[in-house]
Amino acid sequence: MRPSGRKLDEMRAVSVETGFTKHAEGSALIKMGDTHVLCTATIEDRVPPFIKGSGLGWVTAEYGMLPRATNTRMRREAASGKQGGRTVEIQRLIGRALRAGVDRSALGERQITVDCDVLQADGGTRCASITGGWIALRLAVNKLMKAGDVVSDPLVDPVAAISCGIYAGQPVLDLDYPEDSEAGVDGNFIMTGSGKLIEIQMSAEGSTYTRDQMNQLMDLAEKGVGELAEIQKSVTA
Fold this sequence. Notes:
Elements: E1 14-18, E2 26-32, E3 35-44, E4 58-65, H1 77-80, H2 85-99, H3 104-107, E5 111-120, H4 125-146, E6 159-167, E7 170-173, H5 177-182, E8 185-192, E9 197-204, H6 211-236
Parallel strand pairs: 4-5
Antiparallel strand pairs: 1-2, 2-3, 3-5, 6-7, 6-8, 8-9
Helix pairs in contact: 2-4, 4-6
């Protein structure tokens, strides 16, 4: 029934290559099916002015897509002189999602910026960015801990995200682009590895959904995030 032939509760194949770039304190190339995102984490000994002197750290994110990440070329946002609304919304989502798994007191007064660059898009780029972004963040924090710059681990729980939706009347896990473009309902579920919710973005696309269907999607999301959290732990151990 699904265009990819996957089962309703089956994710796309996931692979992660850590240490993908030479200079970043943490980096990971995450592939979820044909969606490929390069995530890098940069540590800086500074924080935004609004928390300076508080002793708290900060985690933020930036997001972008290469011009040919999609089937037609997109103009670089730098060429237009400003970021689009979608880009701003997604990078804010990534930042607040990752901060939900951070003990900012333990991080100390420093900032970690996670850059998520979409090399190829086939649906679920924000979810892949959050999942891969946490891996890059974990690797960067590992370096801080190894150097003795932080005393206790500031990452309290893995953070991952997965899309779920109703396609052809059935709840499905991890929508690719053909499903996402045709789904009657789709959503992004951001959770911790221990199953706690951080954020849900749900919308009906020309259809409606019931409470029972919402619960089915939640069950699928829990399964998917659980699998992603295990992958995150295995590649950063």
